[in-house]
Write a structure and sequence with these properties.
The chain crosses the membrane at residues 6-22, 29-46, 66-82, 132-155, 195-216, 228-251. By secondary structure, the chain is an all-alpha fold. It has 2 domains: 1-51; 59-268, no CATH class. Helix content is 73%, strand content 0%. It has 9 helices and no strands. Helix 1 runs antiparallel to helix 2 (27-49), helix 3 packs antiparallel against helix 6 and helix 6 packs parallel to helix 9.
Length: 274
């Protein structure tokens, strides 16, 4: 229960962080954010207070979910502090703003996702908003890519999740139906779909917003909270999908290796594999 309470607190703090740190938030928006934070905390507590998972994947395969939550928390915190620094500058916010502008400028090259986010904005957008979008996009995208590379390193060089003990597929994948076809082929297919979509989404989302500019106004990102959550979702969702794809591919590889060992043992004993 203590672990479930701690996780619920972290999620609630993550949801409420921009409203708590940014100035000028209206009372109605604050009340809505508090409600969403309590709802997210309650769902997290119920999930982790139960012995058997119902929705969250890889609960017993750390640090998969810890890495994702840590990445999300870091992105929201940095973007919030950069936005806050425009009104109440501090040493920390000034350092993060300078670092964010440096990163945003470095990754703003032709055909990059950050460049597409900048080009998504209307031609009459103010330079200040363009700079804010570039900085937020660069920070969130670089942090998300770093998380993907870190998780890939855990899989390739540290043997995730085998080094954490026995891996139970059905407990760690509660939404996966083991009776609908071959498990190995379905895991491989889902892994490829997640990785492909995760790679394409940072490029597709700006193009879709640009194409739907008659219904979607990108200038709403002048609101700091809208900018923070839009950039966080744009960068974190694809990264999370790629991490999930890598994890599913790793599980499929482990199942394939176990099958090959079982078949080899059966042949060595003179039995016929079914």
């Amino acid at each position: 229960m203590a672990g479930a309470i701690f996780r619920a607190f972290i999620i609630a703090l993550l949801v409420a962080m921009p409203s708590l740190l940014l100035p000028g938030v209206v009372s109605d928006a604050t009340a809505m954010v508090v409600l969403l934070a309590l709802l997210a905390a309650m769902m997290t507590f119920v999930e982790y207070n139960s012995e058997f998972p119902s929705v969250v994947e890889f609960r017993y395969a750390p640090p998969f979910n810890r890495l994702r939550v840590g990445t999300l928390f870091l992105v929201v915190f940095m973007l919030t502090m950069i936005s806050r620094g425009g009104v109440y500058p501090t040493d920390l916010s000034l350092v993060l703003t300078a670092l964010g502008r440096l990163v945003g400028t470095a990754v703003d090259f032709p055909y990059s996702p950050v460049r597409l986010m900048v080009l998504m904005m209307p031609s009459n957008t103010s330079p200040v908003l363009i700079d804010s979008v570039r900085t937020a996009a660069g920070v969130s995208y670089c942090i998300s890519v770093s998380a993907v590379l870190l998780f890939l390193g855990l899989v390739k060089f540290f043997g995730w999740p085998a080094r954490n003990g026995a891996f139970n597929v059905w407990v760690n994948l509660p939404m996966f139906d083991p009776t609908a076809g071959d498990v190995l082929s379905r895991l491989t297919r889902d892994a490829r779909v997640n990785i492909i979509l995760g790679f394409l989404l940072p490029f597709m989302i700006p193009a879709l917003v640009k194409a739907g500019s008659a219904w979607i106004d990108p200038t709403v990102m002048a609101n700091p909270q809208t900018l923070i959550w839009a950039m966080t979702i744009w960068a974190f969702l694809p990264a999370s999908m790629i991490m999930r794809g890598i994890a599913l591919a790793r599980i499929a590889e482990m199942i394939g290796e176990k099958r090959r060992r079982a078949y080899a043992e059966a042949e060595a004993q003179g039995l016929q594999a079914i």
